[in-house]
Amino acid sequence: MSEQHEMPTFMGETKKIKRIIEALLFSASEPMTVPQLLEIFPELERPNKKQIQRALDDLTEEYGQQAIGLHKVASGYRFQVKTDVAPWVARLFAQKPPKYSRALLETIAIIAYQQPVTRADIEEIRGVSVSSNIIQTLLERTWIKVVAHKETLGRPALYGTTKQFLDYFNLTTLDEMPPLKALQELADAGAIDV
């Protein structure tokens, strides 16, 4: 067996698995799950899920004080820049981050907190009609998807959020979103504009 594919035994094996996972996650263009990481290893050299999770936990701890950290998001694990240094890293990119309209942000918030919802439900909550462009933009960004159709006249689409929505906002689950009551209190105090 060549050295590059050889899996050392005992203590060295854990270090080797961790190094491989670190390299995979740095190289991957998307977050990776434990099963995806397992599939990369040849069958005869494949560690078990516990070994993979231990390596992920070790890497998370090792990168804890670094400018880059290992984070678990809805669709797996990924390395990302920590928020305190993000403004400097953002300067590397000529393209400015997209600006979202208040209407788009209100629409995605309604979908996230009330899902599944129809367009009519969103319009009722917002008190104004929802532009087709907003729904189209959210669908193109893959932040929302049609999860079903309501069993009423016309069978309108029911929208829900996606893993890409969670990933973009650095969430693992919808449970990590702040409670609506807390957001309303911030808005009432003038800390945020809603």
Task: Describe it.
The protein is an alpha+beta fold and 194 residues long. The chain folds into 2 domains: 11-90, Winged helix-like DNA-binding domain superfamily/Winged helix DNA-binding domain (Arc Repressor Mutant, subunit A), CATH 1.10.10; 102-188, Winged helix-like DNA-binding domain superfamily/Winged helix DNA-binding domain (Arc Repressor Mutant, subunit A, Orthogonal Bundle), CATH 1.10.10. Helices cover 45% and strands 12% of the residues. The chain is built from 9 helices and 4 strands. The strands form 2 sheets. Strands 1-2 form a two-stranded antiparallel sheet. It has a two-stranded antiparallel ribbon with strand order 3-4. It starts with 10 loop residues before the first helix and ends in a 6-residue tail after the last helix. The relative contact order is 0.09. Mean pLDDT is 86; it is low at 1-10.
The Cα radius of gyration reads 21 Å
Could you tell me the number of beta strands? Answer: 4
Residues in helices, as a percent range = 40-55%
Please give the alpha-carbon distance between the first and last residues. 61 Å
Sheet with most strands: strand arrangement: 1-2
Q: Give the percentage of residues in beta strands.
A: 5-15%
- CATH homologous superfamily of the largest domain, by name? Winged helix-like DNA-binding domain superfamily/Winged helix DNA-binding domain
The domain count comes to 2
Spell out the helices and strands N to C: HHHEEHHHHEEHH
- Which consecutive residue ranges, at least 5 long each, have pLDDT under 50? 1-10
